[in-house]
Amino acid sequence: MRVIIMGCGRVGEQLAQLMSDEGHDVAVIDYDASALARLGPDFKGRRIRGVGFDRDVLMRAGIEEADGFAAMSSSDNANVVAARIARNIFHVPHVVARLFEPERAEVYKRLGLVTISSTTWGAERTRELLTHVELDAVRSYGAGEVQQLEIEVPARLVGHSVRDLSVPGEVSVIAITRDGKALLPLLGTTFQSGDVIHIAVLAAAMDRVETLLGIK
Asked: Which helix (H) or strand (E) element contains residue 147?
């Protein structure tokens, strides 16, 4: 995958390193040479110094062949402008913009721009850790509205079916790991001792899933 990351702050740098380590073709844009230098000598991607929404800079980064564009700078305005240019002018298939203001994130989502609000996500994740200590989310989706949980099947559910832990639109068992192998369960699949249950749950339904698991 050919990816362009605009902004080489802490988030942009980590994203660039992760994607480069996974074998993606990564180009990082930042106007600050010292920020680009933080990528280190072992970084396999390209570094482009310049303003991330400047057409010539984007062309040098390979925007015409890019599969993905991530606007990760510290400026909401710059991120939105760059993301819209990438999507609307260069038709990059996958575009994500990081925004700090949750209100702006909602506005741009309505315009069809995929955004991540670190403020909203951080607040949601902190609330979960404080109020649902028995459940550890291994992954979050959107701005934290949906969480993926992993938990060993409690004794009270052994012998019960997936149907007993399913609530349409709120709680869904998406996989079971049994004896080291994963399976996609049906509603009639029965839980066995030692199973690890992988659950997708609405953040607003965490209290409900705790009740279903018998840990509340």
From this structure: strand 146-152
Domains defined along the chain, listed by start: 2-120 (3.40.50.720), 132-213 (3.30.70.1450)
Task: Measure the CA–CA gap between 203 and 216, rounded to whole angstroms.
Answer: 16
DSSP 177: E
Terminal CA-CA length for the chain: 44
Question: What does pLDDT average to over the chain?
Answer: 86
pLDDT band at 31 (very low <50, low <70, confident <90, very high): very high
Residue pair 109/128 in contact (Cβ under 8 Å)? The answer is no
Global pTM reads 0.62
Residue 185, pLDDT above cutoff 90 = yes
- Asked if the model's pLDDT at residue 124 lies above 50, the reply is yes
At 185, give phi and psi (nearest 5°).
-80, 155
Distance of CA 58 to the CA centre of its chain: 24
Q: In what order do the strands lie in the sheet with 181-183?
A: 137-141, 146-152, 196-202, 171-178, 181-183
DSSP strand pairing (94-99 vs 115-117): parallel
Q: Which H or E element spans position 127? A: helix 118-131
Q: What is the mean pLDDT of residues 86-94?
A: 93
What is the pLDDT confidence band of residue 72, given thresholds at 50, 70 and 90?
very high
Cβ distance 51 to 57 under 8 Å? yes
